[in-house]
Amino acid sequence: MEGLKGTCVYAIGGHNGSPTLDTVEAYSPATNTWRTLPDLPTARYALTAATAPCPKDVDGLKGICVYAIGGFTGTEWPDPAHDVGTVEAYSPATNTWRTLPDLPTARSFPAATTAPCPRDVEGLRGACVYTVGGAFGNVVEAYSPATNAWRTLPSLGTSRDAPGSATAPCPENVEGLRGACVYAIGGFNPTDNILDTVEAYSPVTNTWRAVASLGTTRVALAAASAPCPNGDRNVKPTCAYAIAGFTDFTELATNTAEVFSPATNAWNPLPDLATARFELAAATAPCPENVRGPKHTCVYALGGADDSPFAALSSVQALSVGG
């Protein structure tokens, strides 16, 4: 598409105080340009998204796909009757959306990340898309593009609404965790309120374990996997980033961010965002040239709402985490 080249960042659905959106936009760091793409087939907000190989044998999809998962189709949240299990995939190679098998558990405000499929779970192989928490629950489900199928996995230890999720190496010296881990970060639990706790799932052992807690409670945050900041990546090449959200129900949005180092099993503060926001999205892609140049990697914070509840933001911020 004219104006887009290289790796893009995608903004999918949501709402801006009006009815739920079906709009989809892509940002190209190589051209510092946004373009509008074909609409999401099902308008929704409080959905989650991840990037993974396209499913095999689905007409119109090839290469790498962007998956739009779950969400809410009503006008006033929360209303479980309007939580959906809808899953749709977009193929940049064909500029096409297709509908895939539904989530087994319909939910709003889940989190998603892509990681190796768990071993010895029938119906899953290769890379899987993990959908974690949401709808005030502890459900975890994984989708295998290789088999075009969902499977239910061991539940979270703590129910989490609106958590973040990212994939990074498992922390060392935590019994039961090996290889790459799926992290469930923060969120809201009706019993424990806004959470600072973090859990990690190892596909190798099919097990969840508690790991180091965030520096602050966070819900409606965004999370991403990206190279560790300078000074840490020589030990573990990938870190998990927790970005913004809100820390309690009076102060609303925060502009703080943190990074988790698997090498030390610890969270450390990052530079603050220029704009506090919650219910945002995050992605990792090359930096635009006006930030640090395309050979550097950036973590992007997209949209969300500011301190006025549901005052939607169109601004995007990027943090360079090095080259």
CATH superfamily: Kelch-type beta propeller
**Average of per-residue pLDDT values:** 93
CATH class identity: Mainly Beta
Structural class: mainly beta
Number of β-strand runs: 24
Oligomer: single chain
Largest beta-sheet characterization: 4 strands, antiparallel
**Named CATH topology:** Neuraminidase
Rg over CA atoms, rounded to whole Å, is 18 Å
CATH architecture: 6 Propeller
Count of the separate structural domains: 1
Q: What percentage of amino acids are in beta strands?
A: 35-45%
How many helices? 0
Distance from first to last alpha carbon: 27 Å
Strands side by side in the biggest sheet: 4-5-6-7
Low-confidence stretches: none
- The H/E string reads EEEEEEEEEEEEEEEEEEEEEEEE
Portion in helices = under 10%
Which descriptor suits the 3D outline?
globular
Structural notes for this entry:
This protein is mainly beta and 323 residues long. It has one domain (9-322): Kelch-type beta propeller (Neuraminidase, 6 Propeller), CATH 2.120.10. The protein is built from no helices and 24 strands. It has strands at 9-12, 24-28, 33-36, 48-53, 64-69, 87-91, 96-100, 111-116, 127-132, 140-144, 149-152, 164-169, 180-185, 188-189, 193-194, 198-202, 207-211, 222-227, 238-243, 257-261, 266-269, 281-286, 297-302, 316-322. Strands 4-5-6-7 form a four-stranded antiparallel β-sheet, with no helix packed on it. Strands 8-9-10-11 form a four-stranded antiparallel β-sheet, with no helix packed on it. The mean pLDDT is 93.
